[in-house]
């Protein structure tokens, strides 16, 4: 491709509204352009990278016998109403009406559509298992689109769905998909980890995320420094064996704590450790108010609480509700002498508190020497806190460390979450109707592009791996008006393309410095410069990542490229 005939609008200045390096470089190198907040156009270079990423994905999906389809982006509301997600998904679901005032949604995901398709066609266990996938644009009205392609309102996704007659069949496909994802991200050269995760709005159980390690990642990964254990911090289990002091239990006393509301304030004011304080939270769990107890040095993990109680929705109670329930303002509430109708859920660490501190349910007052079970009852103990760096690894091997990650893939065991409410049924081998047992497997294709852009870069621009780069070779004649340079450039272009190299020929009438700057910015793995020695048939070959350069004769160029691994 001649550079003068393609569309690569490079920028010299860093765009003011681009916060992270990958976003800046994708804009500066002419891979993408923003249309509006969270919505982007992919220019020729960006489209070529997407096609290469998609090719790897298709190869690995086909290898596990998944079959490609293409589903509608506009989805009728009735399908989402069957599962209840029309009402529960939230404002991220983009909704619209057609000219007949019928409700539709722009596809944020496709569980309902694929289930409706299969339920109409697959009626027997003999046609199962079945795995279908697509690569398509998705739409989510993100509250805060940010970091370019990493969190947008319109994005490209590969989503696959599998249908099974037995849990064993689903387990087998799940492991195959996990391995396929591992193959995909390995082939793309990404530094990633597979981590235990939460299923979120998709539903289902048994799920793993694939996270690319990056300082700009929005998710925190908890991993062992001595094993392969890794989990999203929201799902990381905590070792529940807490040592308990054998100190004598003291008598409860009420003490004044004027305006001392936070755990930090209380600990400093009473000269106690934060771990000796009991944090009491009033949580609205599916319209039932409960007290949740967390040790003062820990933080409540709301996802763990939601999962432990099998709740649909949880939220912090308002100040007004707390006042109505306990006749106290927040900051001074506690579990002692509360109405017997209020359920108390505690993190396991609360059992280790001896002679602790909690609110007295009275403004500016706290209780000291409080002990669980003696002074207040606990209905249920659960693992409710966030794991902390330095905690023992849940698998018993090593210590927990934290890292930031960008989620690029997610695999779920959905079970019958969608097939049961949508009556997706098949006849089993005994002639009985059974709901499909389903799996769901997603990859953020445009997110991969952003994650790769974050990983493969230096101060000059992109350093793409050779198998993913938009072009194999960048031919850069210093002066196209020079007949010998132009002739050699044209001859080399024909030669390399005949050997199936994808070549970008910079035939622009630009200064050498501009051409070299653009070449480094774009990130083609090999640059072949044609300059003053063109009359001798000598060119300079420079490798983008290593910075190594060497001169070679025209007839040696193919050998040099093949040693680099170009073909």
From TrEMBL:
Keywords of the record: Aminoacyl-tRNA synthetase, ATP-binding, Cytoplasm, Ligase, Nucleotide-binding, Protein biosynthesis
Reaction catalysis annotation: tRNA(Pro) + L-proline + ATP = L-prolyl-tRNA(Pro) + AMP + diphosphate
GO cellular component assignments: cytosol
Domain Aminoacyl-transfer RNA synthetases class-II family profile: 38-465
GO molecular function: aminoacyl-tRNA deacylase activity; ATP binding; catalytic activity, acting on a protein; proline-tRNA ligase activity; transferase activity
Subcellular location: Cytoplasm
Pfam families reported in the protein's UniProt record: HGTP_anticodon, tRNA-synt_2b, tRNA_edit
GO BP terms in the entry: prolyl-tRNA aminoacylation
InterPro entries: aa-tRNA-synt_IIb, aa-tRNA-synth_II, aa-tRNA-synth_II/BPL/LPL, Anticodon-bd, Anticodon-bd_dom_sf, Pro-tRNA-ligase_IIa, Pro-tRNA-synth_IIa_bac-type, Pro-tRNA-Synthase_IIa_type1
EC number: 6.1.1.15
Principal location: cytoplasm
PANTHER family found in the cross-reference section: MITOCHONDRIAL RIBOSOME PROTEIN L39/PROLYL-TRNA LIGASE FAMILY MEMBER, PROLINE--TRNA LIGASE
HAMAP family in alphabetical order: Pro_tRNA_synth_type1
Described function: Catalyzes the attachment of proline to tRNA(Pro) in a two-step reaction: proline is first activated by ATP to form Pro-AMP and then transferred to the acceptor end of tRNA(Pro). As ProRS can inadvertently accommodate and process non-cognate amino acids such as alanine and cysteine, to avoid such errors it has two additional distinct editing activities against alanine. One activity is designated as 'pretransfer' editing and involves the tRNA(Pro)-independent hydrolysis of activated Ala-AMP.
Subunit structure comment from the entry: Homodimer.
Family, similarity comment: Belongs to the class-II aminoacyl-tRNA synthetase family. ProS type 1 subfamily.
Domain notes: Consists of three domains: the N-terminal catalytic domain, the editing domain and the C-terminal anticodon-binding domain.
Protein name, per record: Proline--tRNA ligase
């Amino acid at each position: 491709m001649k550079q003068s005939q393609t569309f690569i609008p490079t920028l010299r200045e860093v765009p003011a509204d681009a916060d992270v390096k990958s976003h800046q470089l994708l804009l500066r190198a002419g891979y993408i352009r923003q249309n509006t907040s969270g919505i982007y156009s992919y220019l020729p270079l960006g489209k070529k990278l997407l096609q290469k990423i998609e090719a790897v994905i298709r190869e690995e999906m086909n290898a596990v016998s998944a079959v490609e389809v293409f589903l509608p982006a506009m989805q009728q509301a009735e399908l989402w109403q069957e599962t209840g997600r029309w009402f529960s998904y939230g404002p991220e679901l983009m909704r619209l009406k057609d000219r007949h005032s019928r409700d539709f949604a722009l596809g944020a995901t496709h569980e309902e559509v694929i289930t409706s398709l299969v339920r109409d066609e697959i009626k027997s266990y003999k046609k199962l298992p079945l795995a279908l996938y697509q690569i398509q644009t998705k739409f989510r009205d993100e509250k805060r689109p940010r970091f370019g392609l990493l969190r947008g309102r319109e994005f490209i996704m590969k989503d696959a769905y599998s249908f099974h007659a037995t849990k064993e069949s689903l387990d087998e496909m799940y492991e195959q998909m996990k391995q396929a994802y591992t193959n995909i991200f390995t082939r793309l050269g990404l530094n990633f980890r597979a981590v235990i995760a939460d299923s979120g709005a998709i539903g289902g159980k048994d799920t793993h995320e694939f996270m690319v390690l990056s300082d700009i990642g929005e998710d925190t990964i908890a991993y062992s420094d001595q094993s392969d254990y890794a989990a999203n911090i929201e799902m990381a289990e905590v070792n529940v064996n807490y040592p308990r002091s054998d100190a004598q239990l003291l008598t409860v006393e009420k003490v004044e704590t004027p305006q001392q509301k936070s755990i930090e304030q209380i600990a400093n004011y009473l000269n106690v450790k934060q771990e000796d304080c009991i944090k009491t939270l009033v949580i609205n769990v599916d319209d039932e108010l409960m007290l949740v107890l967390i040790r003062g040095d820990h933080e409540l993990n709301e996802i763990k609480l939601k999962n432990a109680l099998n709740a649909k929705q949880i939220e912090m109670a308002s100040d007004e509700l707390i006042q109505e329930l306990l006749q106290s303002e927040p900051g001074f509430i506690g579990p002692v002498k509360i109405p017997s109708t209020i359920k108390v859920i505690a993190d396991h660490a609360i059992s280790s508190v001896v002679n602790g501190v909690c609110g007295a349910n009275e403004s500016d007052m706290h209780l000291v020497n409080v002990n669980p079970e003696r002074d207040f009852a606990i209905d249920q103990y659960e693992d409710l806190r966030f794991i902390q760096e330095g905690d023992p690894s849940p698998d018993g091997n090593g210590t927990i460390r934290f890292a930031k990650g960008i989620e690029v893939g997610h695999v779920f065991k959905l079970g019958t979450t969608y097939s049961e409410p949508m009556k997706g049924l098949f006849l089993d081998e005994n002639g009985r109707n059974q709901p499909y047992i389903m799996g769901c497997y997603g990859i953020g294709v445009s997110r991969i592009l952003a994650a790769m852009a974050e990983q493969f870069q230096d101060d000059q621009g992109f350093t793409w791996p050779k198998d993913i780069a938009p072009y194999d070779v960048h031919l850069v004649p210093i002066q196209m008006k020079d007949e010998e340079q132009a002739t050699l450039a044209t001859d080399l272009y024909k030669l390399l393309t005949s050997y199936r190299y994808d070549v970008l020929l910079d035939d622009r009438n630009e200064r050498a410095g501009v051409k070299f700057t653009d070449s480094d910015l774009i990130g083609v793995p090999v640059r072949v410069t044609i300059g003053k020695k063109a009359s001798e048939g000598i060119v300079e070959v420079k490798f983008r990542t290593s910075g190594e350069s060497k001169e070679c004769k025209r007839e040696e160029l193919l050998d040099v490229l093949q040693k680099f691994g170009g073909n």
